[in-house]
Amino acid sequence: MSASGPLGGRVYIADTSVWVRWARRAIPDALNAEWEAALEGNLIARSPLITLELTSAVTDEQYEWWVSRLAGLTRDFAPDKHSSAVAMQGFHRLRRAHQHLGVSPTDLFTAAIASLERVAVLHQDEHYDRLRDVGKIEFDSCWLDATRSI
Question: Cα separation of 87 and 109, whole Å?
Answer without folding.
Answer: 6
